[in-house]
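Practice record 12: protein with nicotinamide-adenine-dinucleotide.
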Amino acid sequence: MDSRRNFLQAMGASFLALSIPKTGFGSIDDFYNKPYDGPVLRVAIMGLGGYGTRVAEAMRDCKMAKLVGLISGTPSKITAWQSKYDIPAGNCYNYENFDSIKDNPSIDAVYVITPNSLHHGQVIRLAKAGKHVICEKPMALNAKQGQEMIDACKKANVKLLVGYRMHFEPKTLEIVRMRKAGEMGNVMFFQGLSGFKIGDPTQWRLNKELAGGGSLMDIGIYAINGARYMVGEEPIWVTAQETKTNPEKFKEGVDETIQFQLGFPSGAVASCLSSYNISYLDRFFLSAEKGFADLQPSTGYGPIKGRTNKGELTQAHITHQTVQMEKMAAIILAGEAAPIPVDGEEGLKDLKIIDAIYLAVKSGKKISLKL
Ligand code: NAD
């Protein structure tokens, strides 16, 4: 079975429910074999860097989402991407003139894939331009900014989604299904380890102005977000400790390593580690009364690997960004619900936890959370 077929099968019933009535296809084989002529989300990418490139390539396999526009400060990148993806000149913008995208009816949504500190202002400008927005994680630098982005999108009547690609990943979803179905019993403990050894000290990820922090904003957010969807509750308190071994590289306001603990209403607890200076940290472990789940790698680009008390997880790997964009198109175009929410409110919850973790590090105190 080829990857496209795998992909369509993994999309599941909700995708077919959306697509088949509109296309008149009767089965997944029909759907796979016939051209799709249903609605398509026309997307512009803002920020043609490393991750923007990955998303653009993954979107080549989408049926319901298509790359049609570009926003970049580098004219040579625009030219190269235009010929690679067949993008008309009228759909290309820079960071100064992109507000005029409001007059362009051939772009429905913009995917913001720029350094973290730019998300807030760019998303608000795009909302004012009347475009739906998909924004990369972390959605913003803090909860206040996140709320302002949600408000701006609500006011403009456009959707705001956050690029949480793991919320569509089949092995992750199987664990969530098992937990929700009660197959594991009560969840008692989650461990989330998220980190890598970061290289070039001059990159924006180590610049407080552009990154808004350090490892926690970039990679620790996976453990934060994962704790919430694995445990299936919202945390009510957090404690946290920071370790810094290289203050030259990890300057004031740029965290190198943070350990944090979360407490949940049921009494379940999470113990997590976020680091820019420890290799091979990509593991989720969930312990429940009647079962467990163990994912390693848990949030990398895949294939995700793991097992539960029932055995190895065998769901097919599909390119995360392809299924994410296909599902986000269905959310925006047809109001489909995400298996795990990906809206602005979801992003805001993680920002509230990030704010609390930084406060806990600074104060040494246990911080209460109200999500
Ligand atoms: P990158 O450095 O590879 O690309 C960033 C792009 O933004 C570049 O093209 C750069 O030219 C552009 N840019 C615009 N204004 C800039 C400015 N003032 N300073 C610096 N660059 C500027 O970074 P990336 O890895 O693509 O990350 C971009 C965003 O995507 C971040 O928010 C990051 O957290 C997120 N991301 C998400 C995932 C994921 O799996 N969801 C993976 C990687 C990155």
